[in-house]
Amino acid sequence: MSAVFEQIFQVGFLAAIIRIATPLAFATLGEMFSERAGVLNLGIEGIMLLSAMTGFTAASLSGSLWLGVLAAVLTGMLMGALHALFTVVLGLSQHVCGIGVTLFSSGLAYFLYRLIFGQQSVPPNIKGFQTLPIPVLSDIPVLGPAVFNQFALVYMAILAIPLAAFILYRTPWGLSVRMVGENPRAADSAGVSVIATRFQAVVLGGALMGLAGAFLSMAQFNAFTFGVVSGRGWVAIALVVFGRWDPWRSAGAALLFAFVDALQLRMQASGLGHIPYEAFLMLPFIFTIVAMAVMSRNAVAPSALLKPFRREER
Amino acid sequence: MPLPAPLIEMRGITKRFGAVKANEAVDLSVAPGEILGLLGENGAGKTTLMNVLFGAYAPDAGEILIQGQPVRITSSADALAAGIGMVHQHFHLAPRLTVLENLLIGIPGKTGRIDRAGGLARLAEIGRQHGLTLDPNLPVSALSVGEQQRLEIVKALFRGARLLILDEPTAVLAPSEVDGLFSALRSMAAQGLGIIFISHKLNEVRALTHRCTVLRHGRVAGRVDDPANTTSSEMATLMCGHEIVPPARGPSTPGAAVLTLDGISTSKHSGTPLRDVSLAVRAGEILGIAGVSGNGQRALAEVISGTRVPDAGQMTIAGSKVSRFSPREVQALGLGRIPEDRMTTGLVTNLPLADSMVLPRIGTAAFSSGGLLKPDAIRAFAEAQINAYDIRCPGPMTRAGALSGGNLQKALLARELAFDPKVLVVSQPTRGLDIGAARFIHEKFLDMRAKGCGIIVIGEDLEELLVLCDRIAVMYEGRIVGTLDSADATVARLGLMMTGAEGHS
């Protein structure tokens, strides 16, 4: 048994957690901004998939990874704007529109991918992001190679957490976001445009979801496959609840999920091979369900979540 | 007092909603330092007019002038920029954000950041000027209703309001809090602010305001230049267009107790729990339960109506002990109830009125047999009540939610009274109703009393309780602090007891 543990807990394991957590952190922060403003975005799964596709395509055609990231972010913002158009401007059902956005984005991603790359026996791939060791910091024992010898997008995710907290809690715009998610009428009577603030929050959320997609197809897998997202968007929605709509807690939730996921990957590879690997694959999701059941009993969602805002109503 | 040039003037304001004219050619002006009362019944157009002034509705005709200059106000941002602040009846606050955050919303920050220090300084300054102090770091949910209202006022001043509109501000306050509010408003007026005070409590309007404008059916029905020396009945006549005589409560000889509570206590499930509550209502008597909202009235109403099981204590209805505390059991023993919130616990707004009217007794032989409804009987019952109580609606199959508050309350009253309850428990029977509808409800209560029904009226409007009740018990923090015969009771005395001071039984 100790051999198994040795195999699991090593520097590579820590690095794997960080890597797995990165797209989840982007996606969770994105969903959090949207929900904090009162808009549930069930389009997240499809937005991540379409962004992964456009990012991969742009990078593969232009040869520039950063152009790929830009394309993914713009895709996320565009689809966020589409969701906001339906739910914020037109005030339609957030559930229905979100699922619609996911179905539409997924279909579009498959369609465009086939159109551009055709049907190939081996899916095309690109030379994705390489690790970028940070001088000095990467020499710290254990923590250095795990955290400071990563892809540039990982560093961006790490920086995005305090930045998100700063924006949400310290800037007037962040206060407006929280206010329109709690009591839009209060924000409206204080002269804040509820529609504009919600629209902006959903678009910002979309941009972060786009980064999550970009990481998957350009850093983690270096290819676009139809299963490249495989439920990470849905998990992010659960992690937002688990993280109680707070950037720090949400990022922590992503890290915890990544820990369980990395653990099951190692267990698959370890000497416990007589158990079917599908059993290990289930672990992170079982963990999510249990954690949600235990933790979210006290979680209080933004009061105006799911509620469209219309001004002249009698 | 001599009138300086008006701070704000509304001229010929007309606002239509479809075919309904909510305001028609309304003129109104407020001078600096003046407190203007805006009076009118429900639906007279007070709130609509103020929403026009605050930019929530665009008027169809008319203009608004600020210090003689015409302005266009199309959003609340415009109104705030023009120096108009509004304290809405339902507070516009985010409960989970702090006092300071609620103040700073919509205020541009300093170099991209929220200006906390500036906010704190301004808050302290306003606190000093008008005696309106608040802890900036508490979440709003930790504030009392009175403090939340103070925050709304501070919020308006924070944004530099020169005119403050208050929409029925005293409806949510205890009498002692009302005094605090009034002295703050007087201090603001003394410093040159204009104030519009919307209310239908005539004694408050007479005590506070310098001048009144009375609306009726969307038009200006009259103006009162000296409210302090105008009688309430003169003002009521202006509001209603005809004289209103309060119903006379004749003497009664109460019989045996029809409802008793003995040592009832509840656990804290939601809201304030009851602590050792004992009371009795006799046949042919109206007992009032006074208290500031949130002192256990809801738990009391729920226990009596069988929707909440007490932890300790006993209850009897018409001499029979209540054992299971289910709505069906208490109803079978002879209890009728009119819940506090017509729309949520009273009836089903999306179903036909007839269905809502038989809902509590849907399983009885009168309305169903063998597991099937008797639609003809249900319809006939509803039609009979609609005629008997003059409920204004197109018919029994009308969606209940389409009826006005007064007609809904009549429907709820009709469905209980049709079964001759021995005890009737009602919460806030006339909240949100106009004087005519309230008068009708009061008369029905007095009829029931004459017939030997015992009635409990849970309410916050002391004037109403004093007119209606034979005895008034006061609740504070889940306890009954005392019971007064209404002959001995005054608003001042009840108000003191509502703050927890012991009374005399």
Describe the protein.
The complex is a heterodimer of chains A (about 325) and B (about 500). By secondary structure, chain A is mainly alpha-helical. Chain A has one domain (about 10-230). Helix content of chain A is about 70%, strand content about 0%. Chain A is built from 13 helices and 2 strands; from the N terminus they run αααααβαβααααααα. Chain A has a two-stranded antiparallel ribbon. In chain A, helix 2 (about 10-35) packs parallel to helix 7 (about 150-170), helix 2 (about 10-35) packs across helix 11 (about 230-240) and helix 8 crosses helix 10 (about 195-220). The termini of chain A are far apart. In chain B, helix 14 (about 405-415) packs parallel to helix 15. Chain B contains 17 helices and 22 strands. The longest helix of chain B has 16 residues, at about 175-190. The model of chain B has no long low-confidence stretch (mean pLDDT about 90). Chain B folds into 2 domains: about 10-240, P-loop containing nucleotide triphosphate hydrolases (Rossmann fold), CATH 3.40.50; about 255-335 and about 420-500, P-loop containing nucleotide triphosphate hydrolases (Rossmann fold, 3-Layer(aba) Sandwich). Chain B has a 6-stranded mixed sheet, sandwiched between helices. Chain B is α/β, with parallel strands linked by helices and about 500 residues long. Chain B starts with 7 loop residues before the first strand and ends in a 7-residue tail after the last helix. Chain B is globular and about 70 Å long. Chain B has helices spanning about 45-55, 75-80, 100-105, 115-130, 145-160, 175-190, 200-210, 230-240, 295-305, 325-330, 340-345, 355-360, 375-390, 405-415, 435-450, 460-470, 490-500; strands at about 10-15, 20-30, 35-40, 60-65, 70, 85, 165, 195-200, 210-215, 220-225, 255-265, 275-280, 285-290, 310-315, 320, 335-340, 370, 370-375, 425, 455-460, 470-475, 480-485. Chain A: It is a multi-pass membrane protein. Chain A: Pfam families: BPD_transp_2. Chain A: Keywords: Cell membrane, Membrane, Transmembrane, Transmembrane helix. Chain A: It comes from Rhizobium loti. Chain A: It is found in: Cell membrane. Chain B: InterPro entries: AAA+_ATPase, ABC_carbohydrate_import_ATPase, ABC_transporter-like_ATP-bd, ABC_transporter-like_CS, P-loop_NTPase.
